[in-house]
Q: What sequence folds into this?
């Protein structure tokens, strides 16, 4: 693994902060102009994505939750965010830090938030215990979807037509806006702890308590078993093309092929291995077949799937990477750690030229 | 190492035994510690505490070949969630519903790596109503399980029974669980410091229970949940023991609620401590050395215990005479 560039890259192109609490989640807004970090002390920190812009060094702290933040997603609007906490509140945060409450569960934890945007509006979803509440772009509640046990993961499909929720003994796939009261139930015995939908909606994949992934091919219900992980998969996602499913839970990025008949009967490809150090977060690039990954020792790197070439962004401290996200245009990457380190890195070509032209001291 | 892990106390007991009274006391008393409390019914507690977490006891079966390996998935989620909080706390108390079997809670701490890395099971505390326990034991398997799993039993509401009746209930408890510490109380007035931070699941603590291993073995008892204790004089062959206990837990694990042992292993000066919750076992060498000629001891708490068979099995683990 090449690591020569190491922290120099982060120093030259990034903004780094010590925020002082567990970074629970991180994402960019849809316009890609702002980056938000949600923390275990209930705060959300807003940063400019363009680290070279004037005033980019000034991050804004917004106290959003009384307790810990548990989930964060971009809002359906271009520039805002949505966060949820163990105070039972679902709140909207504007790009300038104004906070408005969308929904309150009366104290029950809200552990998952997801959103889908379209030109005419969009959908917001949050999970409270066994229920998934769906809201329209104005924040009006459309409906509540009931599940047999607590919902452990939420995902909209690429067109916002369907929403998947993972729970005990499988996942439920709902048509988000139809009147239909019944989901398609994807069954597999055990505790499912996270969910992802293939970009062309060919398959739904869940992570399981038993250090494995399980998938269902939607055309015929064919089961897909993906096993061999030394630890639970806490983070996974498909590449833009849908050819690969990237996942955490091993000491490398584990990639399952969703082509050529896979993943059934095909071994996964493992890239960016760091011997005996668990990969804790993965994030697929929104355009290219490239995966960013964070590790339990704080290392953050990018790996190109075809060439397996690895670029290390930071050698890290000792704290596990707990949040990782790309900007919608794929030019910027943000990450956070359990110890509270947070960073936004500009990887655009323009910034590269800028960084290289600058004399190093 | 274990000091870095947040201690988790599991509080069980039948409805009306005094569990809520005890919880309220723990939360309102000035003891200088902060506890997160995981409960089933919101509003049941008379305190407004930002560390009270609402849970639905959600049990699932692990897909790992164990027929009785049920786990509380909600607890895995909640413990991981609580650990993200910036405002730290000194411990977690998990209340179970009156009818709950404590096994899934205990097994959760053996099964999930994330939980093991952050928290440790400190003790299972069972609140029992001195007046009603005999009736509960007669009509419910869960009541026996709650007594069997307990590390500490609070024999509550003693003001409602005669001293003789209290002694009889205590003897009944001892027949099921000879290893638990019994604390007598009225209105759950037990000092909090005697319940929390007990390290009851620490293997080294098993040593302290050693004298109790053989005291209350109720040989006549063959119904419901009871205990069977054994001791052998010659040193234990580690390989034979591992093989025997492994097979035994695999085959009889659903009937063996808890198993604890202190072994003198051949060729090893240090004592070996062993414990299991159903099929989930944990064992390690202790820092202390066994006295010369010290016997190895093993206690089973469970149902349908075949004493002669267990005795022969344990005896066969000794090195050749």
A:
């Amino acid at each position: 693994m090449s690591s020569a560039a190491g922290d120099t890259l982060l120093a030259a192109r990034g903004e780094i902060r010590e925020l002082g609490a567990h970074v629970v989640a991180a994402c960019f807004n849809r316009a890609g102009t702002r980056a938000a970090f949600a923390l275990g002390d209930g705060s959300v920190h807003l940063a400019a994505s363009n680290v070279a812009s004037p005033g980019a060094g000034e991050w804004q702290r917004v106290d959003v939750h009384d307790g810990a933040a548990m989930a964060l997603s971009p809002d359906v609007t271009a520039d805002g965010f949505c966060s949820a906490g163990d105070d039972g509140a679902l709140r909207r945060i504007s790009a300038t830090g104004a906070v408005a409450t969308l929904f309150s569960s009366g104290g029950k934890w809200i552990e998952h938030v997801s959103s889908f945007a379209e030109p005419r509006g969009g959908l917001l979803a949050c999970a409270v215990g066994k229920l998934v509440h769906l809201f329209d772009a104005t924040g009006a509640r459309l409906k509540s979807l009931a599940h047999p046990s607590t919902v452990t993961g939420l995902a909209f499909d690429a067109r916002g037509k369907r929403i998947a929720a993972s729970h005990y003994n499988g996942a439920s796939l709902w048509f988000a806006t139809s009147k239909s009261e019944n989901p398609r139930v994807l069954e597999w015995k055990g505790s499912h702890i996270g969910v992802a939908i293939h970009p062309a909606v060919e398959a739904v994949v869940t992570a399981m308590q038993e250090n494995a992934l399980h998938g269902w091919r939607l055309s015929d219900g064919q089961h897909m078993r993906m096993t061999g992980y030394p630890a639970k998969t806490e983070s996974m996602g498909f590449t833009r093309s849908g050819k690969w499913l990237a996942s955490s839970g091993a000491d490398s990025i584990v990639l399952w092929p969703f082509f050529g008949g896979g993943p059934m009967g095909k071994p996964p490809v493992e890239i960016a291995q760091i011997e005996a150090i668990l990969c804790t977060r993965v994030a697929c690039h929104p355009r290219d077949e490239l995966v960013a990954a964070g590790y339990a020792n704080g290392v953050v790197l990018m790996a190109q799937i075809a060439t397996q070439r690895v670029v290390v962004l930071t050698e890290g401290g000792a704290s596990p990477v707990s949040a990782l996200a790309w900007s919608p245009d794929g030019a910027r990457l943000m990450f956070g750690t359990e110890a509270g380190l947070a960073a936004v890195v500009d990887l655009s070509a323009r910034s590269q030229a800028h960084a290289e032209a600058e004399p190093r001291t | 190492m274990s000091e870095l892990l947040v201690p988790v106390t599991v509080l069980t007991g039948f409805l009306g035994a005094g569990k809520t009274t005890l919880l309220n006391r723990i939360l309102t008393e000035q003891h200088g510690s902060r506890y997160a409390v995981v409960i089933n019914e919101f509003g049941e507690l008379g305190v407004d505490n930002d560390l009270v977490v609402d849970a639905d006891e959600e049990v699932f079966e692990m897909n790992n070949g164990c027929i009785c390996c049920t786990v509380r998935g909600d607890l895995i989620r909640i413990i991981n969630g609580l650990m993200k909080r910036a405002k730290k706390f000194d411990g977690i108390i998990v209340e179970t519903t009156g009818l709950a079997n404590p096994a899934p809670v205990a097994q959760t701490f053996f099964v999930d790596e994330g939980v093991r890395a952050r928290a440790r099971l400190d003790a299972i505390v069972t609140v029992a109503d001195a007046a009603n326990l005999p009736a509960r034991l007669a009509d419910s398997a869960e009541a026996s399980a709650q007594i069997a799993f307990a590390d500490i039993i609070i024999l509550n509401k003693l003001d409602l029974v005669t001293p003789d009746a209290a002694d009889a209930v205590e003897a009944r408890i001892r027949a099921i669980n000879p290893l638990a510490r019994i604390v007598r109380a009225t209105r759950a007035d037990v000092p909090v410091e005697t319940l929390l931070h007990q390290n009851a699941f620490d293997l080294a603590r098993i040593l302290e229970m050693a004298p109790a291993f053989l005291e209350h073995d109720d040989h006549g008892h063959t119904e419901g949940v009871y205990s069977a204790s054994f001791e052998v004089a010659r040193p234990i062959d580690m390989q034979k023991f591992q093989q025997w206990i492994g097979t035994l837990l695999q085959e009889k694990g659903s009937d063996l609620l808890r198993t604890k042992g202190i072994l003198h292993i051949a060729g090893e000066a240090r004592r070996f401590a062993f414990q299991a919750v159903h099929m989930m076992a944990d064992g390690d060498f202790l820092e202390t050395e066994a006295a010369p000629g010290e016997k190895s001891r093993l206690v089973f708490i469970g149902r349908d215990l075949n004493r002669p068979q267990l005795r022969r099995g344990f005896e066969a683990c000794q090195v050749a005479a």
Summary: The longest strand of chain A covers residues 162-175.
